[in-house]
Design goal:
Layout (H helix, E strand, L loop, with lengths): L2 E8 L5 H9 L2 E8 L2 E9 H7 L8 E5 L9 E9 L6 E8 L6 E10 L3 H4 L3 E4 L3 E6 L8 E4 L8 E3 L18 E6 L29 H9 L1
Parallel strand pairs: 1-4, 2-6, 7-10
Antiparallel strand pairs: 1-3, 2-3, 4-5, 5-6, 7-9, 8-12, 11-12
Length: 222
């Protein structure tokens, strides 16, 4: 994975009004932290970040350019991005500092490729996981992993062991874990309709239910 250079500056910590002012000025508030790094508030130019990282899906390595000695030269992953629930505007982002010589755990998106045979037969594609955790050096992190589902028939699945990954990328989870399956179509039974008794025509008395004559005789005798 290549590193993307982005200019960052220290940020004054304030309330929501301060953050709102930054966004109106075209700046985006964020924070840098890590296992050996205390949280450092920072800011970037929104246009530069989105221009450098057009797709915020998956993992991206950011190499920071800054006049600040505590930020300049550091390398970090985009760890989390917060969006406005209505407008979709980016509100805040987290950077996680990494050591390029140390392996880390990171989640990678799964892209399901192809149209399964089972779906053509009427089945339903059911992804079980949409991302998977891998362990590797920061420079070896894949942006995403393709999962070919073309040959899947109804009742068949793709497991972790079936994935093709670059050298140096390991899975810390059970390789028998199911990623996606094709389920059989759901067939709903038609509701049973109870037949209502026929209504007697107007002016005609409804027939009296038949009475067991033996029971009627016993009843009179008693």
């Amino acid at each position: 994975m290549e590193t993307i250079e982005v200019s960052v500056d220290p940020r004054e910590v304030g309330n929501k009004r301060v953050a709102g002012r930054l966004r109106r000025e075209g700046k985006l508030p964020g924070v840098l932290y890590g296992p050996k790094t205390n949280p450092i508030p920072l800011q970037v130019t929104t246009k530069e970040l989105l221009g450098s990282v057009p797709e915020l899906e998956g993992s991206h390595l950011i190499r920071m350019r800054s006049k600040s000695p505590i930020l300049g030269g550091k390398v970090a992953l985009i760890k989390d991005v917060q969006f406005h629930p209505v407008t979709g505007e980016i509100l805040h982002f987290d950077l996680y500092e990494v050591d390029l010589t140390q392996k880390i755990l990171v989640k990678i998106p799964l892209h399901f490729v192809g149209k399964p045979k089972g779906v053509i037969q009427g089945g339903i594609l059911q992804p079980i996981l949409r991302e998977i955790e891998v362990e590797c050096l920061p420079m070896d992190i894949p942006e995403f992993l393709n999962v070919d589902v073309t040959s899947l028939e109804i009742g068949h699945s793709v497991h972790v062991r079936d994935l093709q990954v670059p050298e140096g990328v390991l899975f810390p989870i059970d390789v028998a874990t199911t990623l996606v399956t094709v389920a059989a179509p759901i067939v709903e039974e038609a509701p049973k309709v109870e037949e209502a008794p026929l209504a007697a025509p107007e002016g005609v008395e409804a027939p009296t239910p038949a009475v067991d004559k033996e029971k009627e005789t016993e009843s009179k005798g008693s």
